[in-house]
Design goal:
90 residues, mainly alpha, elongated
């Protein structure tokens, strides 16, 4: 149960990183156009901070190993929703 919880938690956080990265990309086609509008620059900076924080959370394990088992029902419920959200955004 702990391993399945770890896998579901990691997959969910990876989907969150992918969605955040997609939303944080600039509206224009190339990356060097972020200086054209302040909102694109702010979106990129905020996206990098959020992606870094979520990526850091992947490696932060609960102090009590039994807490990882709580991710099984949470992951089974929320992972399909996160994947659906990623499909809609893409």
């Amino acid at each position: 149960m702990r391993f399945l919880g770890l896998v579901l938690r990691t997959l969910f956080l990876l989907v969150v990183i992918a969605v955040t990265f997609r939303v944080a990309t600039p509206q224009n086609e190339n990356l060097w156009s972020i200086y054209d509008s302040p909102s694109d620059l702010f979106r990129i900076v905020l996206g990098v901070i959020v992606c870094g924080f979520v990526a850091f959370q992947i490696f932060q394990y609960p102090k009590n190993p039994a807490d990882m088992g709580k991710w099984v029902p949470i992951g089974l419920a929320i992972l399909p929703l996160a994947l659906l959200c990623a499909l809609v955004i893409w």
